[in-house]
From TrEMBL:
Pathway noted in the entry: Lipid metabolism
Cellular location(s): Peroxisome
Pfam families associated with the record: adh_short_C2
InterPro entries: NAD(P)-bd_dom_sf, Peroxisomal_t2-enoyl-CoA_red, SDR_fam
Family (UniProt): Belongs to the short-chain dehydrogenases/reductases (SDR) family.
Function summary: Participates in chain elongation of fatty acids. Catalyzes the reduction of trans-2-enoyl-CoAs of varying chain lengths from 6:1 to 16:1, having maximum activity with 10:1 CoA. Has no 2,4-dienoyl-CoA reductase activity.
Catalytic activity: (2E)-octenoyl-CoA + NADPH + H(+) = octanoyl-CoA + NADP(+); (2E)-decenoyl-CoA + NADPH + H(+) = decanoyl-CoA + NADP(+); a (2E)-enoyl-CoA + NADPH + H(+) = a 2,3-saturated acyl-CoA + NADP(+); (2E)-dodecenoyl-CoA + NADPH + H(+) = dodecanoyl-CoA + NADP(+)
Quaternary structure (record): Interacts with PEX5, probably required to target it into peroxisomes.
UniProt entry tagged with the keyword Phosphoprotein: yes
Principal subcellular localisation of the protein: other
Name of protein: Peroxisomal trans-2-enoyl-CoA reductase
Gene source species: Aerophototrophica crusticola
Amino acid sequence: MSSYRSAFRPGLFDGQVVIVTGGGSGIGRCTAHELASLGAKVALLGRNPDKLETVRAEIEGEGGEAACFPLDIREEPAVEAAVAAVLARFGRIDGLVNNAGGQFPAPLAAINQKGWEAVVRTNLTGGFLVARACFIQWMADHGGSIVNIVADMWNGMPGMGHSGAARAGMVNFTETAAFEWAGCAVRVNAVAPGWIASSGMDRYPPHMRDIIRGLAEHVPLGRLGLEAEVAAAITFLLSPAAAFISGTTLRVDGAAPNFKPHWPAAKGKPAPEWDAFPLASKPSVLGEG
Ligand SMILES: CCCCCCC/C=C/C(=O)SCCNC(=O)CCNC(=O)[C@H](O)C(C)(C)COP(=O)(O)OP(=O)(O)OC[C@H]1O[C@@H](n2cnc3c(N)ncnc32)[C@H](O)[C@@H]1OP(=O)(O)O
Ligand SMILES: NC(=O)C1=CN([C@@H]2O[C@H](COP(=O)(O)OP(=O)(O)OC[C@H]3O[C@@H](n4cnc5c(N)ncnc54)[C@H](OP(=O)(O)O)[C@@H]3O)[C@@H](O)[C@H]2O)C=CC1
């Protein structure tokens, strides 16, 4: 019996198979737990096999079913082989959570071609390759739902120019795929997290720690988001509740892009009303673990 307290009804994804890239940590791990708690069989994709295996064991320890498929999403043959392996193992693919991603912080002038391409391939090309493989190998004939995780980098993001460009590309890919693949009953949406207290926050260098700790002051809701709050948005978009939603990008950001400096954000980092995932990452940079 899963300890995950999903807002969605038990059994919602019974019999379904969902791929979660970047499923070995953070938002991907949390989403994998939520989907498994709702009955989905989860295919965990990521580079580090040990991280994937840990999450697989967690899910199976809670009564769910999962399997690991290590790969680098930037490598087309590996992506095609992993999707084929998911089909060989589970026999179908109903959903894809294109979550793997990340970047290194650097000003534009300090990013060389190799670095630019490493990040663009991670956050744009890789997502395209996984979506395309799922579409060609299964969804074109059987339908499905794809959720691409992007980032709240609207109007540019200093220090994240490579990632912001890739995420903008992924939003546009989402819009085009939603149209091209609609005739095959494939819905394609994106979720744009704002600042989320995930394991990812501990991957930034020490000189950024004070900046990260101060981010909540620029969020109208006065706090960072939870991994489970992103997972819930993803789960909604995968679910039948979103059957007429395709081509959209759902922001999960506490209204951060609406912040204006003449008006204070909510004070005191209010406790979330709903904390679905007791096992969520506790990023040390935020002093929570
Ligand atoms: C304002 C505060 C925070 C705001 C948060 C904004 C919202 C977003 C949040 C998140 O996304 S949380 C997720 C966090 N997780 C990560 O970011 C993952 C960590 N990053 C990585 O794993 C890697 O950077 C990568 C992006 C996946 C790329 O990995 P890869 O193994 O392919 O690359 P590398 O071999 O490490 O480097 C390749 C190449 O890139 C250049 N480069 C790398 N680091 C830097 C740097 N610090 N400055 C400039 N250039 C860099 C360089 O050309 C590297 O090649 P070599 O020189 O090593 O040959
Ligand atoms: N936390 C936040 O505030 C925000 C996060 N996001 C995005 O949400 C997503 C999840 O981030 P989060 O959980 O916070 O951070 P994590 O760093 O914990 O998760 C990123 C995951 O992506 C995987 N990954 C990265 N590159 C590759 C690759 N080339 N091939 C396969 N897997 C890869 C990593 O696995 P491995 O280590 O095995 O490679 C890791 O599990 C990312 O796309 C992130 O950029 C967007 C906005 C804000």
